[in-house]
Amino acid sequence: MRNCSPVTILTYHSIADVPPSGSPYRGLFVSPKNFQRQMKWLSRLGYIGLSLREIHPYILGQKRGKVVGITFDDGFCNVHENALSVLRDLGFSSTCFFVSGQIGGFNKWDEPKGIPYTRCMSDEKIREWANAGNEIGAHTVDHVHLTEVGLSEAFDQISNSRKRLEEISNQRVTSFSYPYGDVSPDIRNIVERSGFKLAVTLRKAQASSRHDPLLLPRRNIRHSDGWIAACRKTIFG
Questions:
Q1: What CATH code is carried by the domain that includes residue 231?
Q2: Is residue 170 classed exposed, middle or buried when 0-12, 13-18 and 19+ CB atoms within 10 A define those classes?
Q3: Secondary structure (3-state) at 176
Q4: Vertex 31, ends 26 and 33: CA angle to 5°?
Q5: Where is the NodB homology domain (predicted)?
Q6: What is the number of structural domains in the chain?
Q7: Structural domain boundaries, residue 97
Q8: Alpha-carbon 88 to chain mean position
Q9: 22 domain-assigned
Q10: Which of 29, 72, 77, 84 has CA atoms 20 to 30 A from the CA of 132?
Q11: pLDDT tens digits, 58-68
């Protein structure tokens, strides 16, 4: 096994104005201004933002460089509107994980929690995202807790999301994000059988060659994280 430095993979959800104090799950929002500042400071510090697919050789030690993984869960329109141009201007790439059953829809899975209504990218926006050099990843069909459904349904949720996204994007979809970070050995194996090569969790750590490529850890960026916190998480994990 090659000796290599661990790599941080950052997680974002909504790049939009942060809801008022007391709103449910407001930590999942990062303001456009804050996101732009975080990306610019990472660039100034010499980091290159990369998609999961592109950063994996660095995790394995096959490549060396100052890199950070940039990922977005859920596939919201506000990511297309407020993050795409920032990434493009800096020469960064990223991975966005889409809920295939809500393409052109909204965050239906969040309704019971009172999280604000948020639009999801359409087919056209997904293609624009991919054509800008970003990776398309899968996040199930309906954003379910995979360990709370039967294995047959879990297989359908995982494999069908991949098929649908490949039809839309006309590119291979080989990266997966477990909704809610919810994973078990059986679910991990279904992800592998469904054709995915990489998958990310919500476990807090830096990724290294010792990690299972289908159980890679990430660091979540919250609404309260300024550029200093984002840089600290990138450098120290």
A1: 3.20.20.370
A2: exposed
A3: strand
A4: 165
A5: 66-237
A6: 1
A7: 9-236
A8: 17
A9: yes
A10: 29
A11: 999 999 999 99
